[in-house]
């Protein structure tokens, strides 16, 4: 399924916009079963109440290893398509790091540096909740692209709660983008920086993501981050 996606389009959109949407990456049934995992404490290594840290309002939990099958397979099947894009970005940004073709090899690099803890997470928001603009950096080793999958159905399960990206360009004002998502849609986006073409060459855009305030209902998301955490 992941191998059949239009990776050329995804790559082009990432290059131009810094994000790309994959429609219907997951079926509604898969989304529902992932939401149901939230109640199973045994699957998670930690739970974060966002308001306690100034991260916003709402909560999330990081999965422990071994990851549920669907999440493990998403991580390993998406990664090889993103690694060439990540390598091109680093080349453009003149960053020396290159990423191996297989996720397990990148994870070995994280583990060797003491980044041992898995980062895939489930997020849960209710009316009034939101996620402040942030970057998911957890140590020296960073894979520059990540994915969030909307598990709830907008309009039916919740209103408000839009996925937001901001771009901070050198010496320029910040630009915001709302990414409309349907249930099961995935957004691929830059974790930290992305290269952009300017009139005088490539420059570095600083990216942040977050979620606007939910007006009603409940919203769940699956976050897939490819580096592990210290
Ligand atoms: O709930 C969202 O859409 C944002 C999730 C998020 O911050 C992440 O997956 O890193
Ligand atoms: Fe995030």
From TrEMBL:
Annotated ranges, domain Fe2OG dioxygenase: 116-229
Coiled coil stretches, renumbered: none
One Pfam family named in its UniProt record: Oxygenase-NA
Presence of keyword Ribonucleoprotein: no
Record keywords: Iron, Metal-binding, Oxidoreductase
Residues annotated as signal peptide: none
Membrane spanning residue stretches: none
InterPro entries: DUF2086, Oxoglu/Fe-dep_dioxygenase_dom
Family named by the database record: Belongs to the iron/ascorbate-dependent oxidoreductase family.
Protein name stated in the entry: 2OG-Fe(II) oxygenase
Gene source species: Steroidobacter gossypii
């Amino acid at each position: 399924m992941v191998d059949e996606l239009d990776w050329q389009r995804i790559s082009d959109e990432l290059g131009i916009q810094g994000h790309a949407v994959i429609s219907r990456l997951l079926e509604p049934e898969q989304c529902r079963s992932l939401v149901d995992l939230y109640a199973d404490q045994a699957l998670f290594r930690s739970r974060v109440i966002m308001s306690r840290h100034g991260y916003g309002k709402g909560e999330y939990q990081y999965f422990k290893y071994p990851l549920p099958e669907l999440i493990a397979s998403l991580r390993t099947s998406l990664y090889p398509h993103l690694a060439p894009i990540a390598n091109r970005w680093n080349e453009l940004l003149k960053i020396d790091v290159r990423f191996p073709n297989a996720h397990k090899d990148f994870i070995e690099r994280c583990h060797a540096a003491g980044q041992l803890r898995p980062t895939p997470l489930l997020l849960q928001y209710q009316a009034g909740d939101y996620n402040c603009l942030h970057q998911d950096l957890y140590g020296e080793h960073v894979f520059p692209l990540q994915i969030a999958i909307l598990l709830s159905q907008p309009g039916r399960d919740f209103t408000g709660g839009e996925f937001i990206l901001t771009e901070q360009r050198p010496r320029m004002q910040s630009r915001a983008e709302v990414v409309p998502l349907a249930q099961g849609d995935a957004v691929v986006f830059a974790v930290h920086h992305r290269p952009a073409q300017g009139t005088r060459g490539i420059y570095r855009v600083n990216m942040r993501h977050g979620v606007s305030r939910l007006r009603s209902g409940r919203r769940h998301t699956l976050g897939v981050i490819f580096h592990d955490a210290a």
